[in-house]
Write a structure and sequence with these properties.
The structure is a homodimer. In chain A, 37% of the residues lie in helices and 26% in strands. Chain A starts with a helix and ends in an 11-residue tail after the last strand.
Chain lengths: 334, 334
């Protein structure tokens, strides 16, 4: 008898998609993108959901509870941003142990309220339960999109590939937090990377601005790691890519800490998850527009590669050599 | 330091409501009814969410996994029905142990598909995770309402109170299942009551038909037990009620099994949860209309009491004596 572990997360998602999908004239996208898209009286309704579990997605020793509340909303905002939408409403299912402290619940609430306030999103309801073990937080966010929705599909041969912000920092934070549990206290520098892991902020505004411009053809958020999420975008667009590793810069402290925690910077940048950055394909020659957008929103936008016809992803180093990466993002059931 | 157990579920929900509610011109109802209500380009969007956890809401020894999948959708359909809406879309967050069998996942899918197909509801997406312990299924359903939405508030003095179907049967089923775990096999008769617990069907069509008629003023679904849900409706409507216990009939087999499992029928009917029936207030003199609706939909509709000004709920027995019930529905954190 086969178990979920023997089948693997991606095959399970494919199976669920095949079994549960159906067609409907008002539905533009069901399972298989960052959020679902349905037409509701003229507007596009975008909906996404993410479940965070203590012991799987976070440990209570890592950060105060307001980080958990903040993150529970932001990971969903990131999905809405990746479709080019504006988050509007959320619903919250909480399952907490009987022994959970009211002070910690207040922490959770504070984090939720802060994230909601920043993006002008309001809570419309939820469900409260007792959990036999750790805390479980499921958040659903509904967003609305104006004239354009950006999908994973739609990238074109010759498009440039861009990524926002910096990659691998949340994965480095995770390394530091995990080491911390066995007694190695993070330095002050390390703390900023831990914050990228425990309290990420989605590129909510930037996602909407990118969707406003016709030169952007496809987008996804980087939540499973660049290699994995790029693979999703390429599969959906039925294309391949060349990624120039030289384009992926990192801070000095990032390099130093990678050395200290015995990880290769490129491994974290290519395979590390939870950065909640945006990866998008745009027509070539849009550097001026994107540089201006980067200045306006104060978010770095880096060109990292190019879309090609051949359906393979080449990671090319400074000497022109093709490098392969073994780990393709976080896999839940292994 | 106070814990959730010391505060209690209802106080926690009130606290969350106070902390997380905010006003918005497009939002007609956020936290505090069976579903949220927002205006979206003219239509009313109703959204509800329910989280089911193995070991809290169900045990895997009780029923095949298709019952769990079926129930996960039906409990949400019941909330949409209680607002007078039609369920349209759903999103699914699954968290399952690594050792979960693919055959059991297929069972879950079968149950979800059956429930979705019955109400013409389609799956728009979700999230898949590994659970460190038991299975967790969070479902969000979006429904749409036509010209009228029914709330818990809105009942008027002199309105008659009605309940659909039969009460206490799911609670009797739970008793039987719990006894079964310690070796007492349910009889064939008992199995029908177990099905009310493991595979309930919401009053989806009836809820919409009731909302179509102006004589119905307020509605709620009976999920926590009559005493508890009636209390919600009365508080929201700022009224009290007289309930005539004589009106609450039960089947002969229900009485016999209550005796066998050493519970009082009235306790289950008044305080037992998970019946997913509808409780509503309608103008007096609508018996003919409601009798016809009952015949059309093949669902019994029983008049059980009357709304009064005095803000208290009187349960009155055949001799005119007021009875009190100690247990006010299911309380999660005790």
């Amino acid at each position: 008898l086969s178990t979920l572990a023997s089948i693997g997360e991606w095959a399970i998602i494919e199976h669920l998609k095949k079994e549960l999908s159906s067609h409907h004239s008002q539905v533009l996208c069901a399972i298989g993108d960052d959020a679902s898209v349905s037409k509701q009286s003229g507007a596009y309704s975008l909906v996404t959901t993410d479940l965070l579990q203590e012991g799987v997605h976070f440990e209570r020793s890592w950060a105060p509870w307001d980080h958990v509340g903040y993150k529970a909303l932001q990971v969903n905002f990131s999905d809405i941003a990746a479709m080019g939408g504006r988050p509007c409403y959320y619903w919250l299912s909480l399952s907490l142990p009987k022994t959970f402290l009211m002070d910690d619940l207040q922490g959770l609430i504070t984090g939720l309220k802060r994230a909601a306030h920043e993006e002008n999103v309001i809570c419309l309801g939820g469900d409260t339960n007792r959990s036999p073990q750790g805390a479980i937080i499921n958040v659903v966010v509904q967003g609305l999109a104006g004239k354009r929705v950006l999908y994973r599909h739609g990238a074109q041969v010759g498009d440039d590939l861009y990524v926002t912000g910096s990659l691998g920092e949340a994965a480095l934070g995770l390394k530091i937090l995990q080491a911390n549990r066995v007694g190695l206290l993070p330095t002050k520098k390390g703390k900023n990377y831990c914050l990228r892991q425990t309290k990420p902020r989605a590129r909510a505004m930037l996602g909407q601005r990118l969707a406003d411009n016709d030169c952007v053809h496809a987008m996804i958020d980087v939540s499973d790691g660049l290699a994995s999420d790029l693979d999703h975008l390429l599969k959906a667009s039925q294309l391949g890519a060349k990624i120039y590793l030289d384009a992926l810069k990192y801070k000095k402290s990032f390099g130093e800490l990678c050395k200290q925690y015995q990880v290769l910077p490129m491994d974290l940048m290519i395979c590390g998850g939870e950065d909640y950055e945006l990866l998008f394909a745009a027509s070539p020659g849009e550097d001026t527009f994107l540089a201006k957008l980067s200045r306006d929103t104060k978010v770095p936008i880096t060109k990292i590669g190019r879309l090609i016809q051949e359906r393979h992803c080449h990671f090319i180093d400074g000497s022109g050599k093709s490098i392969s990466f073994s780990k393709k993002g976080y896999e839940h059931f292994h």
